């Protein structure tokens, strides 16, 4: 179980995430919603360790991760989708995935290691590329992929790490209409496996309604609603938050 207790960050006088306490169970998908600037991405950054908390704690299965670096949290099982800048643009799509698989296996990033030739690494990497419908692009340079394919590659890299917790921050942003279902299918598959804790920041309410078991609403950094999708969506506090009126 992933848990945040009174998680807080201040930027100068501005409290971007304000004492958010919430727990997330394996096998569930929770959508984090809220108006622009509500603190959703910052909340993810605090969970994954990209930002240090001003107060509060992040716990995974009872272990306090709050003082750990982002890579240490990744090793504990917190998976944050790679940013494009973390891809190796001049390596092929397959090589990028293979390096992520190697990293998970603790083989480091020794490019010329004999392990590179290891069949099982290549097989696992190709299987991941098939899952994200990128097998046909295995030999393309990562930098040459269109935007939607780069997003799919990010998901493949994340899956290569086999995290316990998946943090998806607007996974379909900037994708064309025909690419969106591929990524949503992947998230649906992960959810069906029932082992993962999945958190999703998403502005598209139809996607949220379809995928989420639960919705958490942030407004001005604070948690203002938490519950089953239909009731949260209908609640006055959400209507107010989305209208920008103080809840
Ligand atoms: N590094 C930073 N320094 C200063 N202020 C920051 C920083 N990161 C975020 N903020 C501020 O914190 C608030 C929350 O931003 P955040 O990006 O988390 O919102 P969000 O809910 O993800 O918004 P959006 O839906 O637009 O992506 C905003 O007021 C933002 O300007």
Helix-strand blueprint:
Blueprint: E1 2-11, E2 14-24, E3 29-33, H1 40-48, E4 55-60, E5 63-64, H2 70-76, E6 78-80, H3 93-104, H4 119-131, H5 147-160, E7 165-169, H6 180-193, E8 197-201, H7 205-211, E9 214-219, E10 222-227, H8 229-234, H9 236-243
Parallel strand pairs: 3-8, 3-9, 6-7, 7-8
Antiparallel strand pairs: 1-2, 1-4, 4-5, 9-10
Helix pairs in contact: 3-4, 3-5, 4-5, 5-6
The chain binds adenosine-5'-triphosphate.
Adenosine-5'-triphosphate (ATP) binds near residues 16, 34, 39, 40 and 41.
Task: Describe this structure as you would to a colleague.
The chain is an alpha/beta fold and 247 residues long. It contains nine helices and ten strands. β1 and β2 form a beta hairpin. α3 crosses α4. The mean pLDDT is 88. Adenosine-5'-triphosphate (ATP) binds next to α1.
């Amino acid at each position: 179980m992933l848990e945040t207790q009174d998680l807080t960050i201040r930027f100068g006088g501005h409290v971007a995430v304000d004492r958010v306490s919430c727990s997330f169970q394996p096998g569930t998908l929770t959508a984090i919603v809220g108006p622009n600037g509500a603190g959703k991405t910052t909340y993810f950054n605090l969970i994954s360790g990209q930002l240090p908390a001003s107060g509060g704690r992040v716990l995974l299965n009872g272990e306090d991760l709050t003082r750990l670096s982002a890579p240490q949290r990744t090793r504990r099982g917190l998976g944050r989708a790679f940013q494009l800048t973390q891809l190796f643009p001049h390596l092929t799509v397959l090589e990028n995935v293979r390096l992520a698989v190697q990293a998970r296996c603790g083989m480091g990033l020794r490019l010329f290691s004999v392990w590179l030739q290891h069949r099982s690494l290549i097989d696992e990497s190709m299987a991941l590329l098939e899952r994200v419908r990128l097998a046909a692009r295995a030999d393309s340079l990562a930098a040459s992929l269109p935007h939607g394919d780069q997003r799919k590659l990010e998901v493949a890299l994340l899956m290569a790490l086999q995290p316990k917790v998946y943090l998806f921050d607007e996974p379909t942003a900037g994708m064309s209409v025909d690419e969106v279902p591929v990524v949503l299918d992947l998230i649906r598959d992960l959810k069906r496996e029932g082992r993962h804790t999945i958190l999703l920041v998403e502005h598209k309410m139809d996607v949220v309604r379809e995928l989420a078991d639960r919705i958490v609403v942030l407004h001005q950094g604070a948690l203002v609603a938490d519950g089953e999708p239909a009731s949260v969506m209908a609640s006055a506090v959400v209507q107010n938050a989305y209208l920008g009126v103080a809840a």
